[in-house]
Amino acid sequence: MQPTVYALATMDTKGEELCFVADVIRRAGVDVVLVDVSTQGRSERADVSAETIAGSHPGGPEQVLGHTDRGAAITAMATALEHWLPAEVSAGRVDGVIALGGSGGTALVAPAFQALPVGFPKLIVSTVASGNTRPYVGFSDITLMYSVVDVAGLNSVSRRVLSNAAHAIAGMVSRRSEFPADRPALGLTMFGVTTPCVDMVREQLEARGFDPLVFHATGTGGQAMEKLVADGLIEGVLDITTTEVADELVGGIMPGGPRRFEVILERGLPYVLSLGALDMVNFGARETVPAPFADRQFLIHNPQVTLMRTTAEENRQFARWIAEKINRSTSPVEILIPEQGISMLDKTGEAFYDPQADQCLFETLEQEIQQTADRRVTRHDCHINDAAFAEALVSAFARVSGNRFQ
């Protein structure tokens, strides 16, 4: 059977361009279904009408169609599409998706695309693809292609860009490779300042037959890991680097989100957690650091990243926030504390070495965690990047996973 691509746009304004893309895809040997997500006008060329999409809105189609406010209409159609499109993918009716849009059209389709599984082909040709793309990509693997010119008619530039996009999605769905999950996949979180620890843990887990997936704890990294957990693609987690909590609570640029940790606990996966890089909050270039922090201790990591040392009171706040989440656990979890420091910068002679601030973090965590036979906090007389601590993490994972992987 030929693969099928769903091609989406507001066809009342982008119909000509979408039909051009569909023709190129078909010439590449792939079937195409045209999906109209217009909120005002309608297109007779659509295979799936805007009314059909609107019917998937939890409040019914009347919540989507007929809005006089464009922003409200786009938001409502985005909600409807976010219900309709994943259901089509789950039913096996589509092998890849492509969309065209300006800022409104991109915002409309992006939530639905983000909801699709990692590895499923998804591409958006957009006028906003050269700016801040985080709102559109989130922590998914959406491919964004900058349209260069507006998606407003066919011309010598738009034909080239749209043709490339069409061939790209056709290639994705026609040349997909299957990668059997022959080893249990585990999620690991890492930052530059915890790399030695995570590298040692990764090597030990690989030797034990696991497939460690390392996520850079940059806010989107932790959320990307948790999306894979939610999708059932990760079977255990060693959350070694929880620095995203610091940015979430203090206001840094790499927050993990208010639901950090929750999906891991909800799924009851084997879970080991530590405190990597909670000695720092991440900001952009030095001149972008908010004025209220002017008298704090900083380290210029590079021209685009400024690190700020966390205080004792902030560390107490982190510990309470983490404990409130971890106390909900219903399956085995272990929290390991490296007493000699939680990052490369947090040891004798380094810029962020502050044993008193660390002790506030450690002691508060011990006080706030409701320890049981299946929820344990242990201290280890070593630095986070010591080999002994890496071994302790792997041993803890063996305990919380029990016979699960035998």
Automatic annotation (TrEMBL):
Q: Where is the UPF0261 domain?
A: 3-176, 183-400
Q: What Pfam families does the entry give?
A: UPF0261 (PF06792), UPF0261_C (PF23189)
The name under which this protein is listed is UPF0261 family protein
Q: Which organism is it from?
A: Gimesia benthica
